[in-house]
Write a structure and sequence with these properties.
heterodimer, A: 205 residues, 8-stranded mixed sheet, 10 strands, B: 166 residues, alpha+beta, Immunoglobulin-like, 10-stranded mixed sheet, 2 helices, 46% strand, globular, Thioredoxin_domain (chain A), SCO family protein (chain A)
């Protein structure tokens, strides 16, 4: 089951890559207005319950309903990719108006619940944007949600000392109905994110 | 063996480089300089990322075999390997810096990982001691930068300016 999901995710990633390439050189019939890769309806936020940094239950599907939502899987001991991505998103969010910000939220799901307790995660997220939501949960819940969303996670068997966690570095954007809309690859510029967010938020308005 | 497209100038240049390389090799030195060293303010106090640029202007290659700092328990070298959208960090024991080459540690690729760094503040400097097989130890002072460019602490002034806009 997991293998099949991975293969499908791989195929989607490949498709997304091809689409991404095509976007850079617009051709007739492919005129995506977005900087991110369109993945409309490819994934749906799973009906899975996590714990927020405030210790409350958070159901990824139900509790995000009604709000444009960005989801990223990472871990706070990640020195480069995760903080860079979070910093980029926070810069993108800053450029939105106060009203736009009310209709958009960012969810960080830890891929490393062993080390990322709610306190560490809250402190980590606060250094980027205190409105960012941090979620943790059982390993199985996290991995299943990641697999559902085409995000791969690789954890070493030996998790003692300074272990690293491999994880999908993409940011996924979901409509207020929980359907995937866009994917931002690692390295997407904050300004490009802002443009995409404004367009998506205007559509919803 | 030699590439057929090599021009006369190229050969001459190559010969000069070779001579330089031989000379450098005889002196058993490589010309290493390290610049643009920064450490990013850690968001998780257990780990900070470091970035820098290594230039080897000598003719002979060299190898970075490790980095230490008084300001951290340990400094590791990592490379981020991107496989489709999967980012996986791979620890590196050594980094080759060929003669005439520049190696950049930058976000999304090679980076230093400072484990259990001292309490750092933006603007602080952190000494990084780089050990090279040929050049020996090269110390550089890395400047501590904020996580989010232009952001000092929690919120940016930009925010306020755009509050009423849009």
């Amino acid at each position: 089951m997991r293998t099949i999901t991975t293969v499908i995710a791989g195929g989607l990633a490949l498709l997304a890559m091809l689409t991404g390439c095509a976007q850079q050189q617009p051709s007739p019939g492919d005129e995506s207005p977005y900087n991110g890769t369109e993945i409309t309806g490819a994934f749906t936020l799973p009906d899975a319950t996590f714990t927020t940094t405030e210790g409350e239950d958070y159901n990824l599907k139900q509790d995000s309903a009604g709000t444009l939502t960005a989801v990223f899987f990472g871990f706070t001991n990640c020195p480069d990719i995760c903080p860079t991505t979070m910093a980029d998103i926070s810069q993108a969010v800053e450029k939105l108006s106060a009203e736009q910000r009310e209709h958009f939220q960012v969810i960080f799901v830890t891929a490393d619940p062993q080390r990322d307790d709610t306190e560490v995660m809250r402190m980590w997220l606060d250094s980027f944007d205190s409105s960012f939501i941090g979620l943790t949960g059982e390993l199985a819940t996290i991995d299943a949600a990641a697999a559902d969303l085409g995000v791969s996670i690789e954890r070493s068997e030996d998790r003692s000392g300074d272990y690293q966690v491999g994880h999908g570095s993409q940011v996924l954007l979901f409509s207020p109905e929980g359907r995937s809309q866009l994917m931002w690859r690692y390295g997407t510029e904050p300004a490009a994110m802002t443009e995409d967010l404004r367009m998506l938020l205007e559509q919803e308005a | 063996m030699r590439n057929t497209t090599t021009s006369t100038a190229g050969v001459r240049g190559g010969a000069a480089l070779l001579a330089l390389a031989l000379l450098t090799a005889c002196q058993s030195t490589s010309e290493i300089s390290v610049s643009e060293a920064v450490v990013r303010l850690p968001a998780n106090p257990d780990v900070a990322a470091g970035y820098l640029t290594i230039d080897n202007s000598g003719g002979a290659g060299d190898t970075l075999t490790g980095v230490t700092s008084e300001a951290a328990r340990e400094v590791q070298m990592h490379d981020t390997v991107h496989d489709d959208d999967m980012a996986q960090m791979q620890r590196q024991d050594e980094i080759a810096v060929g003669g005439g080459e520049t190696v950049r540690f930058e976000s999304g690729g090679l980076h230093l990982m400072l484990l259990e760094p001292d309490e750092l503040q933006v603007g602080d400097t952190v000494p990084l001691r780089l050990r090279f097989r040929e050049a020996g130890e090269v110390t550089v002072e890395a400047t501590v930068q904020e996580q989010v460019p232009g952001m000092d602490g929690a919120q940016n002034m930009d925010h306020m300016g755009e509050m009423g806009g849009m």
